[in-house]
Amino acid sequence: MTINPYYTERRTVRVYKNCPVSDKIISDIAEAASHAPSTGNMQLYSLVVTRDKDNLAKLTPCHFNQPASTNAPVILTFCADLNRFEHWCRINDAKPGFENLQSLMSAILDVTIFAQQFVTIAEQNGLGCCYLGTTTYNAEEIANALDLPDRVIPIISLSLGYPDDDATKTPRLPVDAFLHFEKYNRHSDDIINNLYKVIEEQPDNARYIAENDKDNLAQVFTDVRYPRSNNELFSDKFIDYIRRQQFMK
Ligand SMILES: Cc1cc2nc3c(=O)[nH]c(=O)nc-3n(C[C@H](O)[C@H](O)[C@H](O)COP(=O)(O)O)c2cc1C
Fold it and tell me: In the chain, what are the domains?
């Protein structure tokens, strides 16, 4: 079997040409991506496209104005959407029982698979994308900026455009790190450190270690990029939001 080189050569694009992406292209990609699997074929998702300058200006602060968002001609917000499906149920005398975490999880899985399918198709057709992990940090602010109805929760955002630089390819863990046949293979300390070496030695990561005065890359992740205080703050915010949206039963 030969794997198509797209899969191993692809990379995240954060710098875009000053060039619009047409409605037709976005719509064609969304239509194709909708053929991805979804829970019970319910397609519990919606996608909001933002291109208008004023609307982008409302959205980018929700992404902490990270350059990948402020550079982009388009921001796509992928939402877990129970609103549309529940509406259809109610007008058909069907009583939806989706006010719980299990149903939100189904919608999160559906929207995540749809979004990644969108990325794959977009990248294979000459576009570049960057996931904005800041979406669930500020999900309610994004919902307000996009005027989302109740029970439509922003989960994933992408910046999208035509690539304007040769984004660097980032290394991956060796397949032995995460692939287990039959039984989970518990790695020793030495093996774990060896598995992560390829990531630690990436030039950008070596620079982050030095710039942040850390001993190693693991400390950059725990102390700088994803510190406990931020993780807990944004978890509390998100839980509070989905509780008010009736998803925590
Ligand atoms: C859920 C998720 C959130 C991400 N959030 C961000 C982000 O906020 N900003 C950013 O520049 N890149 C973000 N990325 C992109 C990753 O940094 C990138 O995929 C990873 O470093 C591997 O690089 P590659 O995609 O070029 O192979 C995110 C990716 C995922 C899947």
Answer: 6-167 (3.40.109.10)
